[in-house]
Write a structure and sequence with these properties.
Layout lengths: L6 H12 L20 E4 L1 H6 L3 E4 L1 E17 L5 E3 L5 E6 L6 E2 L4 E6 L1 H32 L5 H30 L2 E2 L4 E5 L4 E6 L6 E2 L12 E4 L3 E9 L11 E6 L7 E8 L9 E9 L10 E17 L4 E3 L2 E11 L2 E8 L1 E3 L6 E6 L6 E5 L1 H6 L3
Antiparallel strand pairs: 1-20, 2-23, 3-13, 3-17, 4-12, 5-7, 5-11, 6-10, 7-9, 8-9, 10-12, 13-16, 14-15, 14-17, 15-16, 17-22, 18-19, 19-20, 19-23, 21-22
């Protein structure tokens, strides 16, 4: 059997590569042709036992990868945050956590004096406007008859304008409450879902008092409605990587909750400015999430592919180092009962983070490069 080194070295490596469960060692011919320097010849049986695998050299998608951290968030365009516009007491809740609700569907009912106050404000403002209008007309007649001063007329005119503005304000507030399903008879207000989606958060219970947005006090978000089928991941880009990331770039994300699972998405927005304190820019990536595995506020490891191109490349596991030399093994053919492998020095670009290494010199498209068992071949070179 042709080998450049004694077979015991081969036998030491074969069990580790072929598995300890092998019952028989490969038999070796006592004599055979000696391979040229830089080559290793094996029989088909030895090749099988050593689990040597090859792959054709071809054009592959070679790219670099920017690694950063990120956070899973909801898609703002598909998320609704529900606050109460009125101050009052919760008397009923119709939406439960996890429930899928339609847009406009009732979530909770609040009993509030703000509804009656809004209607009363409209009536009072209309009465004040009528009184201001009468006073203005009266002052205008007196001024035209030279019986009143210009100052009195201007004051009456200002009062009329303020009364008119107050009517508009009170009417608009009442309109907003009516649009929000206010019942002027029972003095209740029904909170409605602003978007279709799942009830992701509920911070409300029957009987509690809630603060209204129109009252000017501190109000609390009562419901969050959103879709988990489509989520965002927000990552941070350092200044040195800012110009390399573009909309449409492929993104891979992993999270601690699902080790080994990779989620695929794309970049859909890159911030136009840097944060002055961290010197980073936000990058937003979109992900389809049909299994709802990605949840809001999960921490994620983000890999953004940049500088993409197609080039003649080899897998990373095909490359070996002998001293300061980079080599691969190429299957050169079969003959005389042997499979022949030749050592080939190569020049590759190892600066990329892609699983493929671009070949600069030494290989051509179509060469059969060894991607499994190359260490065994290297151990039997002279």
């Amino acid at each position: 059997m042709p080998m450049n080194r004694p077979w015991p070295a081969l036998f030491v490596l074969l069990p580790a590569l072929a598995g300890c469960g092998s019952k028989e060692r490969p038999t070796v011919a006592a004599e055979g042709p000696r391979p040229p320097a830089g080559e290793v010849w094996l029989t088909p049986g030895q090749t099988h036992d050593a689990k040597i695998r090859t792959a054709d050299v071809a054009e592959e998608p070679v790219d670099d990868t920017i690694l950063t951290s990120g956070t899973v968030t909801l898609d703002d365009q598909r998320t609704g945050h529900v606050f109460s516009p009125v101050t009052g007491r919760v008397i009923g809740i119709s939406a439960t956590l996890g429930e899928h609700v339609a847009r406009g569907q009732a979530l909770a009912v609040i009993e509030s004096p703000d509804i009656g106050n809004a209607i009363a404000d409209v009536h009072k403002a209309q009465a004040d406007l009528i009184a201001a209008d009468h006073d203005f007309k009266r002052k205008k007649d007196l001024f035209e008859q030279k019986a009143g001063s210009a100052a009195d007329l201007e004051a009456a005119q200002d009062t009329y304008r303020r009364a008119k503005a107050e009517v508009e304000r009170a009417t608009e507030k009442e309109r907003l409450l009516r649009v929000g399903n206010a019942d002027t008879v029972s003095q209740t207000f029904s909170l409605a879902a602003p978007v279709e989606g799942e009830v992701l958060m509920r911070n409300i219970s029957p009987g509690i008092e809630v603060q209204g947005q129109y009252s000017g006090g501190a109000n609390v978000e009562l419901f969050t409605i959103g879709e988990l089928d489509h989520v965002w991941v927000l990552g941070d880009l350092y200044e040195m990587d800012f110009a390399r990331v573009h909309v449409g770039a492929p993104v891979l994300v992993t999270v601690v909750a699902y080790p080994g699972k990779v989620f695929k998405g794309t970049v859909d927005w890159v911030s136009g400015s840097l944060d002055p304190s961290t010197r980073t820019a936000k990058v937003r990536c979109t992900f389809e999430n049909p299994d709802k595995l990605l949840r809001p506020m999960m921490y994620a490891t983000v890999q953004v592919s940049v500088d993409q191109k197609n080039a003649v490349a080899i897998p990373r596991n095909a490359l070996l180092r002998l001293g300061d030399q980079k080599i691969v093994f190429v299957q050169t053919g079969e003959g005389d009962g042997y499979v022949k492998y030749r050592r080939v020095p190569v020049e590759v670009d190892e600066g990329e983070s892609s699983p493929w290494l671009e070949v600069k010199r030494g290989l051509a498209r179509g060469d059969k490069v060894v991607v499994g068992g190359a260490i065994l071949l290297a151990a039997n070179l002279e």
